[in-house]
Amino acid sequence: QVQLVESGGGLVQPGGSLRLSCAASGIILSINRMGWYRQAPGKQRELVAAITGRGITNYADSWQGRFAISRDNAKNTVYLQMNSLKPEDTAVYYCNVEGLLTGIRSFSSWGQGTQVTVSS
Please, which of 18, 44, 47, 111 could form a disulfide with 6 given CB 3.0 to 4.6 Å? Predict the structure, then answer.
């Protein structure tokens, strides 16, 4: 009912930048919270950043200042701009979108994940 398509991951050298995108489609009435999570090898999935429908952002302490989350409500798309990337940022990054479907049913959907590898 809700499809999320992520893009923008890849291989980047330390100090480089990447911009992740996640576009939501389907029978969506409204989108509230949009977020990015990451899962490094052998570790649990953890929150990187989230943004509400009004643009209020929340960052995990580790990435505030280097990463920036934003959204385009007209496109149902959330972005994660990642700067000054470090090898420890290597992980699979997932987007999560919460909102309402037509018929006033809530949903919470995950993207398929996009690999980010920071290495020289």
Answer: 111
SS3 28: strand
CA distance 114 to 73: 22
Residue 105 pairs in a beta bridge with: 101
Cα–Cα distance list, 32 to 55, 67, 101, 107, 108 (Å): 10, 21, 11, 10, 10
Task: Find the largest Cα–Cα distance for the chain.
Answer: 49
Give the pLDDT confidence of 44-102 residue by residue, as tens digits: 999 999 999 999 999 987 777 899 999 999 999 999 999 999 999 999 999 999 999 98
Give the three-class secondary structure for 78.
strand
Element (H, E) at 94: strand 91-101
Reference 97, options 39, 23, 45; nearest CA is 23
Amino acid, res. 102: T
CB atoms under 10 Å from CB of 11, counted, come to 12
